[in-house]
Amino acid sequence: MHREVEDHLLLNEAARERRDWKALLDEMDGYRNEQVIFRFCRHFDIGRDEATVILSQVMKWLWLCEYNRQCNPEPISLHIDRPLKIIDEMWHNFILHTQEYARVCDLYFGSFVQHFPANEADYVAHDVLRRSMHPRQFASNQIDRRRPQYEMVYDLLGEYTFRRWYVDYPRVYTPEAIKSLRR
Fold first, then answer.
1. Model pTM?
2. How far is it, in rounded angstroms, from Cα 22 to Cα 147?
3. Does any domain span residue 147?
4. How does 1-12 read in b/e, with b if 16+ C-beta sit within 10 Å?
5. Alpha carbons 107 and 46: distance in angstroms, whole number
6. Alpha-carbon distance 69 to 113, whole Å?
7. Per-residue pLDDT tens for 9-44?
8. CA-CA distance, 37 to 43, in Å (whole number)?
9. Does some domain include residue 148?
10. Model confidence over 95-137: pLDDT tens digits?
11. What residue numbers bound the domain in which 48 lies?
């Protein structure tokens, strides 16, 4: 490895260790982008104020992903599941503003935050598991599998965010509701 690359990696590691993640989260809470919000509102029948809130939730999700990746000795597997579908829609919208998304990722995290959508094998495995269990057992299994994520959201982002993501959003933004909001 070149000495220059080694120095850069050491500097990045030192910066991560010194990073005040709470202050970073507070700083990110102030991020707004009118073009991202405008595009989202053109594709969904959602008002600008609500779209602004959803974008702020995307910023929290990005923060959570990077905190998990950079600070956890054993990062947990984070998933955008059904309750977070509206956040995923805004994230997709944000990613389409490629230069701005890359700039924001670099500014706040020093690297691009990747989006890894579920693939065919993920869907097949999910369906096989669902069909192999009683519906209540399957629901309990899913909660158990997501428990580390739920605890991380609650512990790091607080009860208010947890309730918004896993109580309010699934009630308001069901798959059917999201489909009906599309323009």
1. 0.86
2. 22
3. no
4. eeeeeeeeeeee
5. 28
6. 10
7. 444 454 455 689 999 999 999 999 999 999 999 999
8. 10
9. no
10. 999 999 999 999 999 999 999 888 899 889 888 988 999 999 9
11. 3-118+169-181
